[in-house]
Amino acid sequence: MDWTITETPDIGERLDKHLTRRLPDQSRSRLQELIKEGHATLNGKAVKPGAVLKSGDVVSVTVPDVAEVEIKAQDIPLTILYQDADVVVLDKASGLVVHPAEGNPDGTLVNALLHHIPDLSGIGGEMRPGIVHRLDKDTSGCMVVAKNDTAHRRLTEAFSERRISKTYLAVVNGVPKEESGRIQNYIGRHPVDRKRMSILLDGAGKEAVTEWKRLAVDQGCALIQCRLLTGRTHQIRVHMREALQCPILGDPIYAQPSKQRVRVPRLMLHAWKLAFNHPIHDQPMAFEAKLPAEFEAWMNRVQS
Q1: Rounded to the nearest 5°, which phi and psi values hold at 23?
Q2: Which structural domains are found in the chain, ordered by start?
């Protein structure tokens, strides 16, 4: 497709930003890739994404066919809570890694999605699921996955702009003194242990905000409801351990499970509820992941 730059606001605009407006079905990062690969040109020549448009410039764009992804599909059980042409909402099992990586080349949520979801229309030019947010391997519960570039871009923006409601349940070792509170600080990589994240007192890292409420107490442990206003790596695990001094039961990174008051078979963190507006139709949607059996004893204390 070709068109000529003739008037504002096109004149003086960056090429990648211009294409983002003209081609809303494609993400800006994808369009930047197309420019770098020579699939989007200016006056028939390859340019950089930041090239500034002038009156009379001719923009040409060719979007290549979606390529098959190298990740193999695997028949791994999934609990799908909802699915349509644009999104999938699922209840991820504890112990399931989200994305293939070093040490986990397969057997992941992505491998399972490629098997169970036949109508993926391509994310970033590849036929693959669009992972918008992640849950740790040992965390269970609600996740939303995009099935096309438009849904992926809009969901990513919604997460970034804090327009998605995320509610978790955690069982912690110990009992917080207050019944509720708001934790707001900065989280970044631990200065010594690179596998951990930590609250950084010097203001480095990224802002992390968690609103929490104590729901029940049993055996010297507490069931905590957490509402995430940001989505930092290990955010709840760090906030429970460092801000409340009550690490999550079964946490092998931020606690010593063998020395905790109650022995549990897993990390006691569950992404309980997820609510957002549909990325295409904009209607409100809300989902709840079934409470794992390990949480029932503490939840029964709430109900009694």
Answers
A1: -125, 70
A2: 2-61 (3.10.290.10), 67-161 (3.30.2350.10), 167-271+297-303 (3.30.2350.10)
Contact present, 111 and 129 (Cβ < 8 Å) = no
Q: Dihedrals φ, ψ of 204, to 5°?
A: -75, 175
Place of tokens 């906030």: 239
pTM over 0.90: no
Contact 171, 290 (CB under 8 A): no
Q: Tell me which of 86, 136, 149, 251 is the catalytic residue.
A: 136
Report how far residue 105's alpha carbon sits from residue 97's, in angstroms, rounded to the nearest whole number. Answer: 10
Strand (E) or helix (H) holding 126: strand 126-127
Residue tagged 């934790």 (tokens): 183
Q: Is 202 a catalytic residue?
A: no
H or E segment and range at residue 238: helix 235-238
What is the per-residue DSSP string for 67-112?
EEPSSPP-----EEEEE-SSEEEEEEPTT--SS-BTTBSSSSHHHH
Among 26-30, 241-245, 252-256, which is the least confidently predicted range? 26-30
Three-class DSSP category at 216: strand
